[in-house]
Structures are given as structure tokens and as C-alpha cells.
Write a structure and sequence with these properties.
Length: 155
């Protein structure tokens, strides 16, 4: 099973890379966790938003081809950590590769959202996309620890 985070934006601050790598190295070898940073189309004045989002959509869908896709979207369902852990167990049992899609500054296009099997909201707050990468890595790691009775998660 592979957990893929496909995210628009390649130039992240060092703290984002460090945070993601910290959780990435904690995952067991049999659970492949990968962050794939995709190019952010140039936002020159006069370029229509639809064209920019279309390029982002093409990149995200290509990167997540063959995966069960989950869009990170503010209008998605909110899951508890326990819900995420239960879903992670189900995905592991099914042997599916899972892709979490994070859009650019303008979010995910309607086409990209429609191509996803699920939509997940990390909460009601608006969060910067770099922070979402770290939070997602931590929550996936936490969910894995719940499924294995590892002492990382406490209630």
C-alpha cells in the first residue's frame, strides 16, 4: 500500500520539508509514504484562473493515476483521528494506493474534485497549504499508530 500526497507547489520553506520528513521516516517500510510536489503554474497578470487550475488539475490527476483519490477541500467531510485510523485500516485491507490531493492557492478545480472518490476537510479553519502538508503527514502517522497500538496517540 502506498500513501501519496500530491500537492501543488515545489518551493516550500525548510520547516515544511523538515516536518514532513520527520513523519515520513517514522512510517514502517511496508507502508510507503510519499509527498510529490508538483509545479505551481506561473500566476502572471492576465492569465485566466481557469487555465491555471486546469494545469494544476492535469498535474494532480496524472500524479495520482491508479490511486483512490481524496481531495483536501474545505467543503469536504470532517473526520476524527479515529475515523482516519479506521479508514486507513480499510485501505490497507483492500491494498489500495491512496492519493491525497492538495491544490494550489486557489484550491482544487471542480473537475479535480469530481475525479476524487472522497473529499476531506481538515477543519473549519483556513490553513496555509505548506502547513497542511505537515499536518497531513502527522495525522496519517498518528492514524497508523492507532491501528498498530503504538503509544504515540493518547486519548
Amino acid at each position: 500500500m502506498r500513501l501519496l500526497v500530491a500537492a501543488i507547489g515545489q518551493k516550500m520553506p525548510a520547516w515544511v520539508e523538515q516536518g514532513v520528513q520527520e513523519y515520513q521516516k517514522r512510517f514502517p517500510r511496508h507502508l510507503d509514504f510519499e509527498i510529490r510536489a508538483l509545479p505551481l503554474p506561473s500566476r502572471q497578470s492576465g492569465k485566466p484562473l481557469e487555465r491555471l487550475q486546469q494545469k494544476e488539475t492535469e498535474s494532480l490527476l496524472k500524479a495520482s493515476n491508479g490511486c483512490f483519490r481524496i481531495a483536501l477541500d474545505e467543503k469536504g467531510k470532517q473526520w476524527t483521528t479515529r475515523n482516519l485510523a479506521a479508514r486507513l485500516e480499510d485501505w490497507q485491507m483492500q491494498g489500495e494506493d491512496i492519493a491525497f490531493l492538495i491544490g494550489g492557492p486557489d484550491g482544487l478545480s471542480a473537475e479535480c474534485l469530481q475525479a476524487c472518490q472522497q473529499k476531506w476537510s481538515l477543519g473549519l479553519l483556513t490553513m496555509p497549504h505548506p502547513l497542511v502538508r505537515v499536518m497531513l503527514a502527522e495525522q496519517l502517522y498518528r492514524a497508523w499508530t492507532i491501528t498498530t497500538n503504538h503509544p504515540y496517540h493518547r486519548e
